[in-house]
Amino acid sequence: MFQPVPEKWLISPRLIGKGTFGSVYIATRKQELGPRPYAVKVVACHQWNQIDRIKREAKVLLDLDHPNVIKVHESVIAGNRFFIFENLVCGGDLFSYISNGKTFRALAETEVIIIVYQILKALQYLHYEAKIIHRDLKLDNILLKVTPSHKLFTKTGTTEYMAPEILNGSSGYGHKCDIWSVGVITHFLLSAVSPFFSVDCRKIPKLVGDAQLDMEGCPWGSVSMSAKNFVQTLIERDCDVRPCTNQCFTILWIA
């Protein structure tokens, strides 16, 4: 299918994902006993600066090792394509988990706590050990194993999840921009509503900048006050006031 193909691997023609980052296929190692499926991202590179950027990103990913972060095993350049081989996660993404294609469903608060806790554990590792800011957390970027576990990976940014300091083009943003995104994700999981959704995408940056939350009415009737306080604390416009990852674990709802 691919010419040339990385020599250690067999790549199936079965497409399992596609996006602006490239395409994802099933792969197996040629020398591995009892063929285990992996995922391989295939990125077409037409310019050398693209290759250099992707190589740098892949090197960072190869060094990551945490149960809530997808494990990357190898990255290979072959021809004008860049192949990134990683663990296959079969449970779909969190966006699909709460969507039936037309509407969204809120999750039970106990389930949301489990999900958010695992996201925060992954961020704790990225922020304090790997010294990495994710900067692109959203429902689509959180993958589910068949057994309950939640793993982070990266695609493309979405305005609704971005902290004000990112949207403002500030060069001084830090890892707290990821905490804002966790707050948006938590809001969505508890209520099935994005805190900053608008049919007019041009209005979203202002909604994000205002950071006004409405947690009254039907979607929030059965949600505890401690959960609402958690969301409000994370979706804090002032990044100096917004908690860091470690501080999130001291907030009553998640502690």
Automatic annotation (TrEMBL):
InterPro entries the UniProt entry points to: Kinase-like_dom_sf, Prot_kinase_dom, Protein_kinase_ATP_BS, Ser/Thr_kinase_AS
UniProt keyword ATP-binding present: yes
Alphabetized GO MF terms: ATP binding; protein serine/threonine kinase activity
Example of a GO biological process term: filamentous growth
Amino acids binding ATP: 41
Coiled coil regions in record: none
Assigned keywords, A-Z: ATP-binding, Kinase, Nucleotide-binding, Serine/threonine-protein kinase, Transferase
Pfam family, one: Pkinase
Protein kinase domain residues: 10-254
Family named by the database record: Belongs to the protein kinase superfamily.
Protein name according to UniProt: Kinase-like protein
